[in-house]
Amino acid sequence: MRSICVFCGSMMGNDPTYKDLAAQTGTAIGKSQARLIYGGGDIGLMGVVANAALAVQGEVLGVIPEFLKDRENAHEDVELRVVATMSARKAMMIEEADGFIVLPGGTGTLEEVFDMLSRRRLGQHEKPVAFLGASYWAPLKAMLEQVHSHAFAPSGAAEGFLFTDSVDEALACVGADAEQA
After folding, report:
1. Is the overall model pTM greater than 0.85, yes or no?
2. What DSSP letter does each residue of 3-51 carry, written as one string?
3. By 3-state DSSP, what share of the chain in percent is helix, strand and coil, each rounded to 5?
4. Domains of the chain: which residue ranges?
5. Strand, coil or helix: 83
């Protein structure tokens, strides 16, 4: 079974398409028979993606720091791993995943993304990455291109990243069987 880590916001954001995208992503991962790995909360886009996967009998692993259990309303219906720190959360999510789908989110999502991208750049993994919500992530894509064009990253450092609005394309990028979704 493939494990797909979804990084996303603990808030809903101000555009209803973000919620729709999260629901479509959770449903598709659940139907593809891949395991969803996410931040463990039952709020914001995190809760939407987890609940959508659960609604189609998907397997869901949540990873949450002890100090966020109340704040992020730790999800009671998923396999939940409680860790001590945010660093431990990110490390476990990255280690357990075969690929990453990134939905819109805030500074916590950005922190997760940059940790995962840095580990990839340092050769700690070669797992594929799909950013869903292409217009939301356009500034990040431009920044990554600038980092490369100014020679702060080697040639090919951004290979394997997909920026798309298609859940099917994102699943295909990370190696999930979109045909079953």
Report:
1. yes
2. EEEEE--SS--S-HHHHHHHHHHHHHHHHTTPEEEE--BSSHHHHHHHH
3. 45, 20, 35
4. 3-174
5. strand
- Per-residue pLDDT, 99: 95
For 80, the 3-state DSSP assignment is strand
Q: Give the closest residue to 16 by CA, choosing from 133, 158, 145.
A: 133
CATH of region 3-174, choose from 3.30.230.10, 3.40.50.450, 3.60.20.10, 3.40.190.10: 3.40.50.450
Closest CA to 25 of 178, 179, 138: 178
Task: Give me the amino acid identity at 38.
Answer: Y
The string of pLDDT tens digits covering residues 127-180 is 999 999 999 999 999 988 888 889 888 766 666 689 999 999 999 999 876 554
Kind of pairing, strands 79-83 and 60-65? parallel
Compute the distance between CA of residue 156 and CA of residue 44 in angstroms, rounded to an integer: 34
What b/e readout covers 22-32, taking b as 16+ CB neighbours within 10 angstroms?
Answer: bbbbbbbbbbb
Average pLDDT, integer, range 54-58? 98
What distance in Å separates the CA atoms of residue 119 and residue 125, rounded to the nearest whole number? 7
Amino acid at 166: S
Structure tokens at 121: 């750049």
**Closest Cα partner for 137 from 160, 110, 99, 111?**
110
